[in-house]
Write a structure and sequence with these properties.
Blueprint (H helix, E strand, L loop, with lengths): L13 E2 L4 E3 L6 H9 L1 H4 L8 H7 L10 E6 L2 E10 L15 E7 L8 H16 L5 E6 L3 H10 L2 E8 L2 E8 L13
Parallel strand pairs: 5-6
Antiparallel strand pairs: 1-2, 2-3, 3-4, 4-5, 6-8, 7-8
Length: 188
Amino acid sequence: MTEPLAITWPPAPIRTERLVLRQSEAQDRAAFIELFASPEVGTYVGGPRPRAELERAVPEVPGRRPGFFVIDADGAMIGMITLDRRAAGRLGHVRPEGGEAELGYMFLPEAWGHGYAAEACTAALDWFAGAHPGEPVVLCTQTANDRALRLATKLGFTEVEKFQEYGAEQWFGVWPGSRRPALPEEAG
């Protein structure tokens, strides 16, 4: 299990043009079960989990911990974002000691293709950059997951390496940890 970030939690809800990143609530439980039971969502994360198992295991208020955001659109959960410390024993690091912040996300299939992932991840990364200035964020996904690779590039992650893990080739990238706007002399 990855360690949570050392941050004051929860932050105030983060609002974007269409979304709210917030702490989980009891009303989100059914959406969590749907998310983890979905065959589409499970394609690149080890497969779906049995719904009956999830009904027994998912707590009344799931995901209540530092670094865990529910993505809310129009009052309903459509996905989640996590920012956790990458375990030192795993492959893929940008620091010798490991423990980098790692971005993870999952969205319900009906939320795919609307730009919600880019909007929500950008907001979470910007919040993180404010809370931990200059600290890099890493992301790891299967190279077969074309959508995740496009999103990683769109968010500004750059490839560090590829390796085999969980029986598949993984893409490992880093986000520089700041969103400093270009100075006039740096622009175009």
